Amino acid sequence: MRMMAPRTYHADGAQLFRHPNGSAELGVVLEVQRRWDPEKQWIWLLYVAHMTVRLRVRTVLLVYCSDPAVAARYKKLFDPEDRSVPLRPIIFSPLDVPRVVDVEEARTDPVFAVFSVICHGGDADIDDLFPALAAALETVSTETGTSYDDIVRAGLPPDARARWEAYMVKTDGHRFYSDYYRELDARSRADERSRSVLAVLEERGVPVSDAARERILACGDLDRLDTWLRRAITATSVDDVIRD
Which of 59, 106, 176, 230 lies most in the core, judged by the most C-beta atoms within 10 Å? Predict the structure, then answer.
C-alpha cells in the first residue's frame, strides 16, 4: 500500500457571508481561469470541500474565465451530474458581465464599475465606460480611488489603458488619484510648452540645431521652459534661449 502525502491547494480568493446574527451563511470560493485545464475540476472540489467542512457553511464556487471559449468548455464539462461529489460551479466570462455606462449606477456600486471596465477592456468602444467609472471614483476616498485606479490601469490592455489615462488627465475637474497622473499631466504641459518655444523660434526664423531641439523637447521643468519661451520672443539665436 502506497501512502500519499497531502498537498496544499489555495484558491484565488474566498469570501464568507454572515447572517445579521453573526452566523456563517454562505461561503464563496473564487477562481480565475485563463486557460483550459481539465484537472481543475478535481482541485475545485477540494477548495469547496475545505471551506464547507472547515467553516460548516454552504459553499459555492465562482469561476471567472477571461476567455469566453474557455468558459463554454467548463460549462459543458459540468453539465452532467454523475459524480459522487457533484460540483456545479457558477462559470462566467466577460460576455456575462454588464457594461456599466450609467453614471448613477456606477456611483452606487464603484467596485462593479471597476470590474466592468476591466472585463470589457478589449471592446472597441471601451471609452463609453470611462465617464461612469470616473464618476464612481469620485464617490470613494482618495486612498480607495487610488487603489481602484491602479487596478484598472493594471487590468486594461495597453491601448485601452493609454486611452483611460488620457481621459483622466483631460477631464475637467478631475481629482487626480495618484502621483502618476500628476506626473503625466506635468509631462503633457511641458510638451506643450517646449513646442511653443520651438514654434516661436520657427516663426521668427531663428535656426534650431537638432541637438538644441532635442534638449528643448526633453526638458520637463516648466519654470525653465517659461524662461526659454520669454527669451525666444527676442533672441537672435537658439543659444541665447537655452543658455544656463
Answer: 106
